[in-house]
Amino acid sequence: MEPSDTTVMRGGLLQLDCQARSVQGAPLVAWRKDGVLLSALVDERRQQLNNGTLLVREVIHSRHHQGDEGGYQCLAWLEGVGAIVSRTAKVTSLPLLPVTPQPSSRDTTLLRCDVIGEPTPVIRWQKDRRDIVLDPAGRAVALPSGALQFSRVQPSDAAAYRCLAEDPAEARTSTDTVLRVLPESRQPRSLVFLQRPSPVAALEGRDAVFECSASGYPAPSFLWTKAGSAINTRSERFALLGGSNLLIRGVRLEDAGVYRCTALNGHRNISASCELSVLAPPRFLKAPANRYAYESTDVEMECAVTGSPPPTVRWAKNGDMVVPSDYFRILDGGNLQILGLVKSDEGFYQCMAENAAGNAQVAAQLILREPVPQAPPPVPPTSLTDSSPPPPVVPSSSALPSAPCDLVPVLVSSRSVRLAWRPPEETHGKVQGYTVYFSEEGINRERSVSTSHSASSPLTVDGLKPEQPYVFRVVAYNDLGSGASSATISVTTKPESQVPGPVEHPQAEPLSPTSALASWDAPVSPDIPILGYRLFWTEMATGKEQVTGHSYRFEGLRKFTQYKVRILPYNQYGLGESAGDLVLRTLSDVPSSAPQNISLEVLSSRSIKVCWLPPPADSQNGFITGYSIRHRKTGRRGDHETIEPNNLWYLFTGLDRGSQYSFQVSAMTVNGSGPPSEWHAAETPENDLDESQVPDQPSSLHVRPLATSIIVSWTPPLSHNIVVRGYIIGYGVGSPYAETVRVDSKQRYYSIDNLEPSSHYVISLKSFNNAGEGVPLYESAVTRAATESSTPMIPPVGVQALPLTPDSVRVSWADNSISKNQKSSEQCFYTVKWMVSYSTSGKYKTTDTTALSHTVTGLKPNTMYEFAVMVTKGRKSSTWSMTTHATTYETAPSSAPKDLTVISREGKPRAALISWQPPAEANGKITGYILFYTVDRNAPIDTWFMEAIGADRLTHQVADLSPDTTYHFRIQAKNSRGVGPLSEPVLFRTPKAEYPDKMANDQGERPWHPLHVLSYVFYNSSPADLPMGHLHPPPKNGLLVIVVVSVGALAVVTVVIVALICTRRSSDQGRAARRSCGPPDLWIHHEEMELKSIEKPGGSAPSVCESPIQSHPEISPVGHGLSESHTGSKRDGDDVSSSIATLEHPLAARRPTRTKLLMPMDPQPSNPGNVIVDVSWNQVTVSSFLTSHSVAAMAAEASASHSQQATVTMSPSPEGCGAEEATSRTVPTACVRPTHPLRSFAGPLLPPTGKFPSLNQSVISV
Fold it and tell me: Are 608 and 655 in contact (CB under 8 A)?
């Protein structure tokens, strides 16, 4: 028996009982007060009886010296065994305070009698020295605090009152107080609280009372609310005492919270709040059990406790509190862990739990068995009730293993040591394992770690202290027991790595509904620098590494969601300590979705009821503060109604008859209104339904019996002009009147449960309204036998899945349990489930159908799914059928490639490297990418430049960009079904060129071609303006000039002869072709570009406005690029490196005139080729061209070249008619270097200002 809490009057007698028993003898009993043995305190008022009871006479209040109030414990012990202590009994004395009533009152008065004691003494009231008989429903009521409250005070209440406090020991009486009653003036008086509600702490299962009273005229009424919801004070658990005090019967844990008392009298409202705390005394979920153990082993004694508030757990050994240390550890859950047991650890251990509701304790005994010499440590039993095994036979030392050899440390850290050794020289059988014993130097407590490996593999000993010397030894054991111990070695652990401490002043605050900011100061750490910080937050289950600053902004958080943030600094040694978790909640926002399950119910010709449910919890984004209902009549403007958050329906009245109304509901938070729902329409009838007579009989009634239930279904009466408020179902064995159930008018089925098997039941069904009950309809059924065997159902067979579209699959099957014509003889349905094949999550979706096929929609394109079907008949269901697989069709990508990045190339200011990742929703196998870029972001996409890229590439280089120019890049993916959306534009600005030559030659050094010079001379009047570069102007040699002029004249004659021959051959067809022909199309390789004639089909003349892009089946033209004079250049100096500029317009008016597309083609050979240059003359004659600067010299130099040839065909025709004739021949082509399409915008194609380039590399041959 343990002592219990008690309350005693001052000067009274205190009695505390305690009894202890033991099978090993009568234990000794002593008492403690506040942890001090009473035997050490001399006091004649205390006496301990032989049975252990403690008596204290003439109790002294604690305000006096050596008061008797406090905590008492009974201590029982046995010599040589141990000791235990009881729970702590709280003793309080009972002081009385004088009654403090209102001296006068008109409506409500309160007489207080403040008594302190635990448990609370019984309070009685007397009127004129006579006991008052109180009626709980009367005007006078005694409150738990001891106060006496009068409502609607009357003159007869005027008298002298006093209170009496009683406990089992004695009673005390207060002084008299006279109550005067004043007449009511009937003038309005403002409301004032006589008693504001105060916080209440109640034990679970006890009653709790919130006291609240107010005075005023008119007399107030009272309303109690919790969390904004009104409390029904006429329910089973809630009631009003004295018309204003809230009584809660049988308090539960869920009743805890904040309550508000509101007094209102029509003129003014006043309110006050208070909190209810529900206390639950400690209760043991898992108590420690008696244990046997051996020395040098570790043991853990379990103790799990619950209570409200959460109790604190302490441990006591033999009546003394256990102080946590290196070898005695109280773990987080309350368990006690003892490391390296020694003989003195034996005794009684008590787990003691305490909270505000009380305290409790439970004890267990730990016994250490004597170690058997040379025997391995057996598995200890878990309880003292286990039968002790017989003493093992001690084997001789000749049958046990010898000592292991060469015990050495192989790895030493700050908190662990890894040991290795060699097996014993004499094993005397197979070695079963090893045990390593270790202890701190100078400490007798030895611990052990065992391994079951027979080989002498290394063993790691963890949980050591830094910079601490330890002693280690190892023992081997075989089937007979443990052998000899090895020699001991001493190992000192290394110093602790200097990891950082916790950060200073961590803070976290929300910035918006989706972002928050965490900040902190650097930890106070040694000289080792902090490398960064690692942040973790629970909602997203992720971390952010390498945060080098002292703040971090979280983005993409969920709205109005609580997060826990942890900040860990780290250095070169690893992560540091945590400063604890920071808790924050993101700000609220308007709801992101509309209310759910909106329904309309037409109640009459003038009213419609609208019902709804709140938005999903994850989309409310805050506390719902109300709902907004927009309603309108067809053809009219709508109105708004605002509803309180606790109401989930609203009745619209006064509507027009025979009219259609539409309703829309949206939820509101403090931030505003969320999105509205869809419009829901309902039409009021022309006339109200008749309720002057009872409804007709239901038109049908069906029953389906099962073993212990009957499923009833019905249809409503045929007459729809009479109101039906609901249905009454009656049932019973042999009679339908034994039990009745009322259901709503919208319900069409009901399951009657808890019936007897194999019984005959009669069921009746009738409808009712306010006029009365209609005529019943009867049916009977016999429930099935409980023992009847049911054969397992056969699952559907032949399940097939056929893809229909990229997002739908049709699933069909056969059911062998029904007839061959595939029509079921009884009601059944099928469940189809599907999931992505080889999915690791295991999540699947289901749908029900009554047909033998179903089309599953909403699937992902180009994804393999697996399907299975199950059949259900009544309450029986089959297993799932065999799965079948189907892959949905491909469709065009529905997302753009990700992570589009543009960077510059080092040393190449005119080149850019583009990289990307495949789209997240490829919807099929990617067959390629299309890159778009432009200098004008606002230009239509069909005017951007485009380059096609293979599917196996995720990077691409764009060359020949203009320096110091801003470009915009976008990319899209394509598959066999089409192209996907474009990515967002990425801005990139090319760097500035260091000098003109580098800008012109950023893709590699290439000399000026003589044709550049030819074009430049044609447009410039002075050779002094020639460009400067690595080449030099031609030497001023007269002989060279003569040679050049002579060769030029010969070239002119040759050209004229060739032109006359071509003119004669072309005839009339040539003339027609010349009127519509244009420059030859270009077939351009991505790396090396070719200048070719594109042969046209017979009978179709080439068109000037056609482009290669228009003829491509998959790619549409997106922009206008380079003219034919700007097609590219070769890589090597010996090759032809530029083409001739178009001479149809002045240089200032030149603009890009044709579309450019870079397509990856087979690479061309690197051998020198020929260039066909077709020059059309509109305003310049051949003679004027030939008299330009140094043409003859250029021709002479070209004729001497053996590395490459170029054929120049000059046609004087203004229409360029020689093109068709060229297309009819097989002309060798020349590999030319690609030129970026935007060069036409960057500047003219003429060489930069400088000297005339050297012509010693000219390659023109005529």
Answer: yes
- The pair of structure tokens assigned to 189 is 């008086």
pLDDT given at position 1124: 36
Task: Please state the rounded mean pLDDT for residues 874-894.
Answer: 87
pLDDT at 284 over 50: yes
End-to-end, the C-alpha distance of the chain in Å comes to 127
Percent of the chain with pLDDT over 90: 19
Write down the residue that tokens 């038109």 correspond to. Answer: 699
Q: Is the pLDDT of residue 425 over 70?
A: yes
In DSSP terms, which residues pair with 777 in a beta bridge?
765
Question: What distance in Å separates the CA atoms of residue 477 and residue 431, rounded to the nearest whole number?
Answer: 6
Chain segment 216-266, per-residue pLDDT in tens: 888 888 899 998 888 988 888 998 888 888 999 999 989 999 999 999 887
Confidence of residue 675 (pLDDT cuts 50, 70, 90): very high
Average pLDDT value for residue range 378-390: 43
Distance, CA of 919 to CA of 899 (rounded, Å): 9
Q: What is the mean pLDDT of the chain?
A: 75
> Average pLDDT, stretch 1088-1114?
39
Q: At what angle do helices 1038-1076 and 1191-1199 cross, to 10 degrees?
A: 90
In the prediction, which pLDDT does 1092 show?
Answer: 39
Can you list the positions of beta strands (E) in 423-514?
433-440, 447-451, 459-461, 469-478, 481-485, 489-492, 504-512
For residue 259, the 8-state DSSP code is: E
Phi, psi of 1036 (to 5 degrees): -85, 75
911-968 pLDDT tens trace: 999 999 999 999 989 999 999 999 998 899 888 999 999 999 999 999 888 888 999 9
User: Rounded CA gap, 247 and 244, in Å?
Assistant: 10
Q: List residues bridging with 222 in a β-sheet.
A: 263
Higher pLDDT, 853 or 1156: 853
Q: Is the peptide bond before 676 cis (omega within 30 degrees of 0)?
A: no
Query: How would you class 73 by CB atoms within 10 Å of its CB: exposed for 0-12, middle for 13-18, buried for 19 or more?
Result: buried
Identify the DSSP state of 982. P
Q: What is the DSSP string of 631-693?
A: EEETTS--EEEEE-TT--EEEE-SPPTT-EEEEEEEEEETTEE------EEEE--SSPPB-SS
Distance of CA 33 to the CA centre of its chain: 54
In the Cβ-directed half-sphere of 597, how many Cα atoms lie within 13 Å?
8
Question: Is the sign of the CA dihedral 763, 766, 770, 772 positive or negative?
Answer: negative
Contacts of residue 989, defined as CB under 8 A and 6 or more positions apart, other chains included, come to 964, 965, 966, 967
| Radius of gyration of the CA atoms of the chain, in A | 50
User: Regarding beta strands 469-478 and 504-512, do their DSSP bridges make them parallel or antiparallel, or are they unpaired?
Assistant: unpaired
CA dist 93 and 115 (Å) reads 10
The rounded distance, in Å, linking the Cα atoms of 199 and 854 is 61
DSSP letter (8 states) at residue 836? E
Q: Tell me which residue has tokens 């046990």.
A: 400
What are 64-73's contacts with CB under 8 Å, separation 24+? 67/93, 68/8, 68/14, 68/93, 69/93, 70/33, 70/34, 71/33, 71/34, 71/35, 72/3, 72/16, 72/31, 72/32, 72/33, 73/3, 73/31, 73/32, 73/35
How far apart CA 1089 and CA 1240 sit, in angstroms, is 17
Q: What are phi and psi of 1092, to 5 degrees?
A: -125, 165
- pLDDT tens-digit readout, 475-525: 988 888 888 899 999 999 888 777 777 888 888 888 888 888 888 888 876
Q: Which of 714, 728, 712 is nearest to 768 (CA)?
A: 728
The distance of Cα 468 from the centroid of its chain, to the nearest Å, equals: 45
pLDDT at 650: 92
pLDDT at 334 over 70: yes
Token pair in block for residue 224:
């109690």
Give the integer Cα–Cα distance in Å for 852 and 810. Answer: 11
